[in-house]
Every structure is written in C-alpha cells, then in structure tokens.
Design a protein that fits this description.
Shape: globular
Distance between the termini: 51 Å
CATH architecture of one domain: Alpha-Beta Complex
Oligomer: single chain
Strand order of the largest sheet: 3-2-1-4-7-6-8-5
Structural class: alpha/beta
Mean pLDDT: 89
CATH class of one domain: Alpha Beta
Low-confidence stretches: none
CATH superfamily of one domain: Spore Coat Polysaccharide Biosynthesis Protein SpsA, Chain A
Radius of gyration: 24 Å
C-alpha cells in the first residue's frame, strides 16, 4: 500500500468517525430538537448597532415592531455608530410613529462591539437581543428562543442563520454553507459545545453581562470571543433551528475574502486566548472533540485537496503514458473516442477507492442539508446550491484559510470598518 493510499484512508477514517458522532448525536437527541414552549414573556431589549443604514433602517424598525411578541414586553434600541448619512434623522422620524418603544442614540464611531456596549447601558430588558440592521427575521424568531431561558444555566440562545440573496454563483455557495451550519450548530448545541454566537440575531440573559462584562471592543470577532467566554465559565448556549433570520451575504469576491480573513483570524485568535477550552480534563464535548475536530478538519481540508488534485492529475498523466506506450497519439485517441470508451473510463475512475470516499462524504453532506431543510421549514429549492457547494466550496475554504493563516502568521494588518487589526486584535 503506497503513501497516497494510506493518507486517503486516514482522512476517510477521520471523516467517517466525525460523521458517525454527528449522526449519533442527532439520532439520540431528536426529542430535544424542537424548541421548548415559553412559560412567560420576559421583557426584551433589542440592541441594533447601525452605521450608514439610511436605506435599511426603515425596514429594520418596521420588522422588529411586527414580531410575534407582546408589544408591551420589548423595546428597540438603535445605536447610530457615527453614520455619515441620514441614518439618525430617518430613525428619529420612524421612532415617533412606532407601535413599540424605540430609543435612538447617536455617538462617535467606535465599532460594533462599542455600539453594543453603549446599548447595554440603556437597556432595561431581562433578555438582550442583538440584531443587525441588514438582517431580516421571521416574525416568530424571538419567540422560539425564549423557552430555552426557563433553564437558569442557559445564558445565550443562537438563531438559525439563513441567506436572503441566494441567487448568483457566490451567493448560492454561501447559502449552502450557511444551510449546513444550521444543522451543525444544533449538533453543537446538543453537545453543549456552541463556540460562536452569530451577530444577526443572538439572544442573551442580561445577567450574563453583569457577571462577565460587555463585548470585547478590541476583538475582530467579538461574537466568537463572547461565546468562548461563556463556555469557559461553564454556562450553556443553546440553539433554535426554527428561529430563522436572513442575512445579506457578500456579492463580490473581494468582499468575501475580507469577511473570511476576519472570521478565520478571529477564530484563531480566540482559540489561542481560550486555549484552556481544548483541555480534555474539562471532560466536555467542546474540549474532547468539537474544538479539536475543527482544527483537524482545517488541516485535512488542505491535505484532502492536495490528495484529490494529485490523484486526478496522476490519473490523466498515466492514461496518456499508456497511450504513448501503445503507439497511440492524440489523433488516434480522438479517432477512437466513442461512448463505450468514455463509459469505461468513467466507471474505472468512479470505482477507485478515492472516489468512493468522496461519494460517501457527498451523501453525508446531502443528509445534513435534508435534515436542516426539514427542521428549518425552508421552502426554497437548494439543490443547485448544494451542487455548487460540493464542487467549489472546499477549494475556496482552503484558499480563504491560506490567506487568513498568512495574515495571522505574518501579523499583516487588516481593516474592518474604520479600525485596523493585526492577528485578530485592534491596533
């Protein structure tokens, strides 16, 4: 057995092992996937940091004012983070006609975490709901998260992040990625191992901020830092698969690269800052397999892409070597090309052990998508997005991680808004 075959089997074993853990978690906890019904309606403070959202702020306030929740049980806090357009004035006019209390504040630009902390100082809710202005939420999204707070150990609940602009090459791939995340985030929940609290809609118990402080304003991914901080103190983070929110994804490749540099460099930085979460002596699923599996998956993605590319290039080279040995040249090759020869070549290719594992992985991914589609209630057809995801996501994933690793290792500066970061921290 050559080195290539050994490498493939090791990668395949790890993939099948992790997939088995995921499916066993799902099968053993199906009764826990449905959201618990709320027994009461605590007062909720929505905090919405905005910057140059003049065109979107009307829809933001209108959508929050029309959610399925008692009108006297929540407030909306808009924090204008030094916008250069008419966001503040437009928001003030809308607040005067809102059916629920809307507080409008403006401040000098300080970044998302700074705006959130500003909003926390003016919030009166027992529950704090963070909401992004470029996000559309299902009317029942908040309501579906509230029942989890009946458990006093629960300090935060994440929603299911979906994609609004799902048409277009890059958008479809991102849609499929987010859709897979809907299922995996619930698996993390069932293992008490959620380590990222996405920004578009995340719901917190207000006491959490009294105990642990506000968001880290110097962190490039304050949502990841907060999740790891919560986990390090032994509190629980839960997820609602049916609390749907829809976000706008990057439409240009340059925007997507910038976003992924932020995400991945932030994840590496926070993993280092909270490296004690990797300690298996904690005896949590987060420490024993979720976090280690995340980094092993990144490594194996690089490795698998190399192996897959090597195998395909080697197969083509070997085929043309055989043609040259038998005296066939390119003219003879195309002259003898017919349906039978094409079929034989495809069968020979598809029955190799390497492609077999690729097919198994594809079927596992498809099952993830079907489960997420069922529990999320998604009505849009996602088949084309799934095909594009399987064809292009992993090369893109490796490319983005390569760039993020370069930025992290070299300390190369990156910007997010008006702030400059290096290795995940603001300079």
């Amino acid at each position: 057995m050559n080195l290539l075959a050994i490498s493939v089997y090791i990668t395949a074993y790890f993939g099948l092992f992790i997939s088995s853990l995921i499916f066993l978690t799902y099968l053993g906890n199906r009764h826990r996937i449905r959201d618990p019904e709320p027994k009461r309606f605590p007062f909720v403070s929505f905090i919405v940091p905005v910057f140059d959202e003049e065109k979107a702020i009307k829809e933001t306030i209108t959508s929050l004012a029309n959610i399925d929740y008692p009108k006297n049980k929540y407030e909306i806090i808009i924090v204008d983070d030094g916008s250069t357009d008419k966001t503040y004035r437009v928001a003030k006019k809308l607040a005067a006609h809102s059916t629920v209390p809307v507080k409008i504040f403006t401040k000098t630009n300080g970044g998302c975490a700074n705006a959130l902390n500003f909003g926390l100082k003016h919030a009166h809710g027992e529950i704090i709901a963070r909401f992004d202005a470029d996000t559309t939420l299902d009317k029942s999204a908040l309501l579906k998260t509230i029942g989890y707070f009946e458990n006093p150990k629960v300090m935060a609940v994440t929603s299911s992040l979906n994609v609004l602009n799902h048409k277009g090459f890059l958008q479809r791939i991102q849609w499929a990625e987010y859709f897979m995340g809907i299922f995996l985030r619930k698996i993390f929940d069932l293992n008490q191992a959620i380590h990222i609290i996405p920004g578009p809609l995340s719901v917190y118990r207000a006491k959490l901020f009294e105990k642990l402080g506000g968001f880290d304003e110097a962190n490039i991914t304050e949502d990841t830092e907060m999740a790891m901080r919560v986990q390090s103190h032994g509190y629980e983070i839960r997820n609602s698969m049916s609390a749907m929110v829809y976000t706008i994804t990057p439409t240009r490749f340059s925007q997507l690269i910038k976003q992924r540099i932020r995400w991945y460099s932030g994840f590496m930085r926070n993993s280092w800052d909270y490296k004690h979460l990797f300690d298996a002596r904690r005896k949590t699923d987060l420490s024993t397999w979720i976090l280690p599996a995340s980094f092993i998956t990144i490594f194996l993605s690089f490795f698998s892409l190399f192996v897959f590319a090597y195998y395909n290039i080697r197969a083509v080279i070997d085929y043309f070597i055989q043609l040259s040995v038998t005296g066939f040249g390119m003219p003879e090759f195309f002259h003898n090309l017919n349906w039978q020869t094409i079929t034989d070549a495809l069968i020979n290719y598809a029955t190799s052990q390497y492609i077999f594992f690729f097919v198994i992985g594809t079927l596992a991914m498809l099952l993830y998508f079907l489960i997420a589609k069922y529990y999320s209630g998604e009505k849009r057809g996602i088949f084309r997005a799934f095909i594009l995801f399987m064809l292009f996501y992993f090369p893109l994933f490796v490319f983005f991680w390569t760039i993020a690793l370069y930025y992290t290792i070299t300390g190369k500066k990156t910007t997010w808004g008006h702030r400059v970061y290096s290795r995940g921290r603001m300079l």
